[in-house]
Specification:
Number of domains: 1
Number of helices: 3
Shape: elongated
Oligomer: single chain
Order of helices and strands: HHH
Largest sheet: none
Distance between the termini: 41 Å
Length: 57
């Protein structure tokens, strides 16, 4: 189990980011926050690309 998987047992990505990065029990701290931010940004970019694809066709 990764640190991210362990943390997600207790909180969702949105809850972690909404905490203002002040996490009382974060397993890896800033590294985890950076990884989650990257995953959220990638998911948002993918969703935007999928939403734009039918309009472009």
């Amino acid at each position: 189990m990764t640190a991210r998987q362990a943390w997600l047992r207790a909180a969702t990505d949105a809850e972690i980011l909404a905490a203002g990065e002040v996490l009382p029990v974060a397993p890896v701290g800033a590294e985890l926050i950076a990884a989650i931010r990257a995953e959220v940004a990638a998911a948002e970019a993918e969703a935007e690309a999928e939403a734009a694809a039918p309009a472009a066709a």
